[in-house]
Design brief:
single chain, about 250 residues, alpha/beta, Rossmann fold, eight-stranded mixed sheet, 8 helices
Length: about 250
C-alpha cells in the first residue's frame, strides 16, 4: 500500500470572553484533515498525518525518511514551521533545511501537493513564505511575494481548461469555492482547472518526480460543505494522487 504524508491542517485558538466587568478565556485545538484523509484512504492509500504543532519536530530531516512516502501533501502549513526547528530557533543549532529536502525529494522521484490556505503559498500577510524557499522550484506555479489571498464570499466556480489525467473522470460543473491563493502558472506546467481565471489545479514534472497544486482549501472556510460533501470530492484527490504516484 502506498503511503502518503500530510503535514499541516491544524490550529489552536485562544478566545477572551468579555461579560460586563468580567472576562475569562477558553482555548481549543482543531483539525481540518478529516475529509481529505478519508478521501485518500478510500483510494487505497495509507496516510500519516503530522499536525502543525508536531510537524516542527517530527517532519523528516533526511531524504531516506521522506522516500518511504509516495507523496507528501502540504496543507495550510507555513514554511517557517519546517525551516525553524526548535533546536535552531531556541539554541542556534544547525539542522537540515527541510524545504531543500522537499525539493530534493521531488527531483529524486517523489511527489508533492501543495493545498491552499492562510499559511500555504504566500498566505495571510505573506507569512506562508513558500515562494522564497527551494520548494518554489518544484511547484507548477509561481508564488507571489505578498498576501495572495483572494476572498470570494459570494462564491466562485472552478472551470476545467485542460483534460489532464490528474483530474480524469471529473465533471465540468463543480461546486462553488469561497476563496483561494492567487498564483501564476509556470510556462512548462499544465494548467488543468482555473478559478476566477487564476490557477486552481496545475501539474508539473521536475527531475524524476512530479508535483501539483490545489490553490483553494480542502476544508472550511474556503471549501464550504457543498464542496467537501461533493460526490466527486474523493475522486478529485484520488485522481491527483494516481497521476502523481504512478
Amino acid at each position: 500500500m502506498k503511503k502518503i504524508l500530510i503535514a499541516g491542517e491544524s490550529w489552536m485558538s485562544f478566545t477572551t470572553h468579555v461579560k460586563g466587568f468580567d472576562t475569562f478565556q477558553t482555548s481549543v485545538y482543531e483539525e481540518g484533515i478529516e475529509q481529505l484523509r478519508e478521501a485518500i484512504e478510500k483510494g487505497g492509500y495509507d496516510v500519516d498525518f503530522l499536525p502543525n504543532h508536531l510537524a516542527s519536530t517530527k517532519f523528516p530531516y533526511h531524504i531516506e525518511e521522506l522516500k518511504q512516502y509516495s507523496a507528501v501533501i502540504l496543507s495550510d502549513i507555513g514554511a517557517n514551521t519546517l525551516l525553524l526547528a526548535p533546536e535552531t530557533f531556541n539554541f542556534s543549532i544547525r539542522k537540515p533545511n527541510r524545504c531543500q529536502l522537499l525539493k530534493d525529494y521531488v527531483l529524486q522521484g517523489g511527489a508533492l501537493i501543495m493545498i491552499g490556505g492562510y499559511m500555504t503559498f504566500s498566505g495571510i500577510d505573506g507569512k506562508g513564505k513558500w515562494g522564497s524557499t527551494p520548494v518554489q522550484d518544484v511547484l507548477p506555479v509561481n508564488i507571489l511575494n505578498y498576501d495572495d489571498r483572494c476572498e470570494h464570499p459570494e462564491g466562485v466556480r472552478p472551470q476545467i481548461v485542460n483534460e489532464h489525467e490528474g483530474i480524469l473522470g471529473l465533471p465540468k460543473e463543480w461546486p462553488f469555492l469561497l476563496g483561494y491563493n492567487k498564483t501564476i502558472i509556470k510556462p512548462d506546467a499544465c494548467l488543468a482547472v482555473t478559478i476566477n481565471n487564476d490557477p486552481l489545479i496545475a501539474f508539473g514534472s521536475y527531475g524524476k518526480g512530479k508535483s501539483a497544486v490545489f490553490t483553494s482549501d480542502c476544508a472550511p472556510h474556503w471549501a464550504p460543505p457543498e464542496f467537501t460533501g461533493w460526490s466527486y470530492y474523493n475522486k478529485l484527490w484520488q485522481s491527483m494522487l494516481c497521476w502523481l504516484t504512478k
